[in-house]
Amino acid sequence: MMRSLWSAASGMLSQQLHINTISNNIANVNTTGFKKNRVDFEDLMYQTIRRAGTPVSGGAQIPVNTEVGLGVKVAATPKIFTQGDFMRTGNPLDMVIEGDGFFQIALPDGTTAYTRDGAFKIDSEGRIVNSNGFILQPEITIPENATAISINESGVVSVLTPGAEAPTEVGQIELARFVNPAGLSSMGKNLFRATAASGEAITGTAGLEGFGTINQGFLEMSNVQIVEEMVNMITAQRAYEASSQSIKTSDEMLRIANTLIR
To answer: Among 103, 205, 223, 260, which one has the highest count of C-beta atoms within 10 angstroms of its own C-beta?
Structure first.
């Protein structure tokens, strides 16, 4: 069987995953805090027919390898953690991190997840939670009679209550960052989980020790660029078509070989 059939098939499968990734990026173009994926490819092993350095007659040597590649595969689909655009909302519980860092979210199983989605709300007990009701960590409770909420760049949360002359501090938002954020595992729901590849979370105060600052009343939008994704889609489509054409050509060559008459 011709190697080209399997090599071309690997190209079609790889481009299919490429299109799947692009489609997911485009689908999340308006998802708050979403970070796009990129597809990295790598070539497969090679079959060496004649190795460089092999002696030939007259004391000479073969100068280069004669080898045939066996196709391509997807090596990785890393998250790209570039900053997305900011959108002003005016909502006092909407926050963006300008720079490095993640908000910490407590999951029902007791573990911690991480997010760039700063669209927070208040639950029935006054706690600051995300859209799925998971509690922001460290836990911060807003008094029921609070008339105004203020969050400064370092994450200090203050409230104004009736009769008070000055705001009262009710909590401090801590951020987390990672040595290798691309190693985080995507959970869905705008959440990430730490892995051995990402390293342990490094927590600290916004604006200090390499952490970004917090801005109240804004949301970070997706970092997906539609024009870039459309160009990538066209490239992937053309690569898929070229691989399918290679299969057609290989099939035609096999047909010709099978119909040879002595």
So the answer is: 103
